[in-house]
């Protein structure tokens, strides 16, 4: 397994990744959006492989 190197290394790497996201160099596509009350359907979609890529709950 890969070891992160401690919390300070993890914070540095997180800041670097989120900096790239904020600058638009990394884009995260959201393929599905579910209302929180539709969590059961979201789970079914994941199990049946109807959901692809990233899914989020809108609250």
Automatic annotation (TrEMBL):
Report which superkingdom the organism of origin falls in. Bacteria
Instruction: Quote the Pfam families the UniProt record gives.
Output: ADH_zinc_N_2
Report what the protein is called. Answer: Quinone oxidoreductase Qor
Species source reads Cupriavidus basilensis OR16
Which taxonomic lineage does the organism of this UniProt entry have?
Bacteria, Pseudomonadati, Pseudomonadota, Betaproteobacteria, Burkholderiales
């Amino acid at each position: 397994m890969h070891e992160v190197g401690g919390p300070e290394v993890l914070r540095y790497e997180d800041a670097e990744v989120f900096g790239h996201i904020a600058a638009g160099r990394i884009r995260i596509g959201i393929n599905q959006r579910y209302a929180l009350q539709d969590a059961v359907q979201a789970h079914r979609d994941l199990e049946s492989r109807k959901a692809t890529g990233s899914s989020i709950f809108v609250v």
